[in-house]
Every structure is written in C-alpha cells, then in structure tokens.
Amino acid sequence: MDTVQVGFADINKDWDRDIAEYHFDIYHLSGWIAASAIVDKGTPQGVVATYKNKKVFLPIIIREIDSEHWDAISTYGYGGPLMDKSLTDADLDIVLEEIRVFLCDRGCVSLFMRLHPIINKEWIPAVGKALTHGLTLMSDLSKSEEEHWSETQNRHRRGIKKALKMDVVTKTECLTRESAVVFSNIYKETMAHVKADQYYFFDDDYFFNLLENLQDRIVLITAYQDNKAIASSIYTICRESNIMQFHLGGTLNAYTHLQPSKLITHVARNWGRDNNYKILHLGGGVGSNLDSLYEYKKGFSSQELIFKTYRLVVNPEKYAELVADIWFTEEDLISEFFPLYRKTPTIETVSDITQAESLADF
C-alpha cells in the first residue's frame, strides 16, 4: 500500500529547482516567498508531500503564536499549492490529511492559503475548506492589438488619449535600487490617499528584496510628465507559465487627473503581448469585492476568473482554545475571517467588556 511521506523543505534555490517541473508561478519561487515573509513578519518554509512517487508542494510563511504553537499562511499574492496533475482529488485528500497530521505534530494550529485563480482553478478539496470570495480579471495576450483596443472601455480609451495628449510618457524597465525608491514613494502616497490598511504600507526592504532575488522577473512601468515620475506599477512575469500579473501600483495625488495609470495598464498589456506571454492577470477588487478597483480593471478586459482561499484547522482543540480566549461578538464568530483568533474584535466587543467589568465593581 502506498504511504504519504511529508517533510519540511528549505526555501532556497534547491526548492526552485524542485518545483521547476510543475506548473508554477512567481508566487511559488524562493525569492517571492522570502519577500512575503517580510510582509507577514514570519519565516519562509516549504512543505513537500510524496505519494505514489508524485509530489505536492506548499510554500508557506510560519507565524509564531506562542513558544509551542504557530500557524501558516501562503505568500502575498496567489501562492497556492503545486500538485502533480496526475493525482486525483481522492489522492490529494489523502495527501492533505497526512499533511495536516504532520503539521499538527509540529505545533501548527491552522493553514490559510490564497489559491491561484489559474493554477488551482480546478481543485476542490474535501479535507479543509475552499471558499469562493469573488472574481479576478485577466486579459488574453494571444489577442491582437486591435482586439485589445476594441475590448477597452471607452472611458479608459479617453483616459489613455488624454494622458498622451498631456505629454505623459512611459518607461518600461527592470527594477533597480533607484527606481524601487521612486516606486515606493509613489505607492505609499497612494496608500495614504486611499486610507489603506497599514498592512499594505510595505517598507523599502520589501522592494529591495524583490530586486535582489527576482530582478529578472519584475517589470516596472513608470509614467513621466516633464521628466517627473508621476505614476508607477510593478508587474511580475513568469516565462515558465507565460503568466504576467499586476502586483502593485500608484499615482501621485497631484497627477491623478492625467489618468497615467490607464496609460500604464495599456502599455503593460502591449508589452506582454509583444513579449509572447499568454495571460495578463489583473487581479480583482479590494478584498475581492466588486468595487471601483474591480470596475477599473474590467475596463481592460471582461474575462473573469474565480478567486478562492483554502482554510484548514490543523489542531481543532488549540484553535478552539485560542478563539475562546478572545471576547468576540456573535457577528465576529460567524465571520469568514480565518484564522478567527487573529481577527481584531469589534469596537462594540471592547466596549461591552469594559462596561461589564465596570458593573462588576459595584
């Protein structure tokens, strides 16, 4: 009878060599995992399971809970598992259960992974749970320039033409230390303007890490007016899967009226097509919502993909204990937030606790 062998793997160039035989994306590479560990303040780690001489790879970030326990999250972006395509769903469930046992024995409480809308789109696990959250958008780069322009909404066409009329030009380049700082400053101003969560204010070390480990897999497109950088976007490229993806972008507040981001997206689509990539994955809205960001991206392509996450309670007893130690409202408890013990309790909860403690004093 075949057994499942599970073990940890270091995240390094050997990991990159091992996954090279699989349908992977940039999110699975050691350089990306290392950069994501900076964002999530954790330790990069690989999990490898072998069953019937076939492998499953999980790139994860380990986050400490206490001296004995930790949980795991996938890399920033879409870093879902890599699997041998010949493994059946039943095979994968057998593997997942053995991975759960392995992780539990080593102190893991929960596993959360953002599934890749392209690579993991057909995976439906019975061990753990895959939840559908919303839609992402992609542009088929096998289409012609004329077809791409035809599927661009009129409001975006006008924006592109306006930027060009106002002498906005773009530069497509590799990430350098100097350009990383320029991008970082533009990006942070945008995050402050939209009042983004503090999580998204990546410091320069994150961009320098991408530069050091993935320079040949990053395309930076920056818009200028009068030699001043006014907007910039980072795109990732993976020749092995022929996938190009939007990662981060921003526009200086004083120049949003020139709509340089629309010109950048247009240029990125042209660059991907000219360089023979198959797909430009634009991503979705904030928190997978069908919001203004989603509508903006839909203005360049209406081809939709489904975004899902995978959740596995590795140690149910410890998970329940951690949740029980926090004062949550009923609304918190039915939330889809995972793992729940890392959710910040609502303000009402804190107020109720304070009031209850005050009444207890009398």
Describe this structure in words.
The structure is a single chain. This protein has 362 residues and is of the alpha+beta class. Helices cover 36% and strands 28% of the residues. It is built from twelve helices and 13 strands. The chain is globular and about 65 Å long.
What is the SS-derived class?
alpha+beta
Provide the helix percentage.
25-40%
Q: What is the CATH T-level topology of the largest domain?
A: Aminopeptidase
Number of strands: 13
Counted up, domains total 2
Question: How would you summarize this macromolecular structure in one to three sentences?
Answer:
With 362 residues, the chain is an alpha+beta fold. The chain is built from twelve helices and 13 strands.
Topology, element by element:
Blueprint: E1 5-9, H1 13-19, H2 30-39, E2 43-51, E3 54-64, E4 70-73, E5 82-83, H3 89-105, E6 108-114, E7 129-140, H4 145-150, H5 154-165, E8 169-173, H6 177-193, H7 204-214, E9 218-225, E10 228-238, E11 243-251, H8 260-274, E12 279-284, H9 292-298, E13 303-313, H10 316-324, H11 330-333, H12 347-360
Parallel strand pairs: 4-6, 11-12
Antiparallel strand pairs: 1-2, 2-3, 3-4, 3-5, 6-13, 7-12, 7-13, 8-9, 9-10, 10-11
Helix pairs in contact: 2-7, 5-8, 6-7
Key features of this structure:
alpha+beta; 362 residues; disordered C terminus; 2 domains; 13-stranded mixed beta sheet; 12 helices; Aminopeptidase
